[in-house]
Design goal:
The radius of gyration is 18 Å and the shape is elongated. Helix 6 packs across helix 9. The longest helix is centred in the last third of the chain and has 34 residues. The protein is built from nine helices and no strands. The protein is an all-alpha fold. Helices cover about 85% and strands about 0% of the residues. Required for the export of heme to the periplasm for the biogenesis of c-type cytochromes. It is found in: Cell inner membrane. This is Heme exporter protein B.
């Protein structure tokens, strides 16, 4: 599993720019918002957490279609399915590597982008914390869409269509927890705990559903 994690981590960084493309897209989405809403600093500060979360969500969707594509192209996908190691554990390892290469850089970049939106220290910290907790759920959900579309020649758009509606609860509670942290420490806990529960839920359900889809694809 360690060798698979390191292999997928290298492939995620090399394939199409990996985390660099995600960060550049994240920066582009957040940077153009002030030009659209105008120079109202109070408005930017108010909508900043939501914009950063939306930008991170859209950036996380990039590259999800390549989660199993390398194995599909070189024929090793059948070996992953037939090996003695449980396929669910293999999918979980690949999701961890993908998030480390593409999701974690977004979390690290979010404080800098929060400054573009005139967010205060509390909002920036809460946004980074909620992204750290909630963004893995996007990868786990995306693994299911990537497994369903792995046999399709151009499944990238299909993966986004399948994944985006399922990520809405993660977006809602991530933004809600961030706004609650600005108002006070107590309202922050309920949505933040729900966000953690969603990540744990999809950490179990996502790899299992993706493994089932991969088995059906290779049959």
């Amino acid at each position: 599993m360690t060798a698979l994690f390191l292999r997928d981590l290298r492939l995620s960084v090399r394939a199409g720019g990996g985390s660099l493309i995600g960060i550049l897209f994240f920066l582009t989405v957040v940077a153009v918002i002030p030009f659209g809403v105008g120079p109202d600093l109070k408005l930017l500060s108010r909508i900043g957490p939501a914009i950063v979360w939306i930008g991170a969500l859209l950036s996380a969707l990039l590259g999800l279609d390549r989660l199993f594509q390398a194995e599909r192209d070189d024929g090793s996908l059948d070996l992953l399915v037939m090996q003695e190691t449980p396929l669910v554990l293999t999918v979980l390892t690949k999701c961890a590597a993908h998030w480390t290469a593409t999701g974690l850089p977004l979390v690290i970049a979010s404080p800098l982008l929060g400054l573009f939106m005139n967010m205060n220290e509390t909002a920036i910290g809460a946004t980074a914390l909620t992204l750290l907790v909630g963004s893995p759920a996007i990868t786990f959900i995306g693994a299911v869409g990537a497994a369903v579309a792995v046999a399709l020649p151009r499944g990238g758009l299909l993966v986004s269509i399948l994944v985006l509606p399922l990520t809405i609860p993660v977006l809602i509670f991530g933004v809600s927890a961030t706004y609650a942290a600005v108002e006070g420490p107590q309202p922050f806990l309920p949505p933040f705990l729900i966000l953690m529960a969603l990540t744990l839920f999809f950490a179990v359900l996502g790899p299992a559903a993706a493994a089932l889809a991969l088995r059906n694809t290779t049959d």
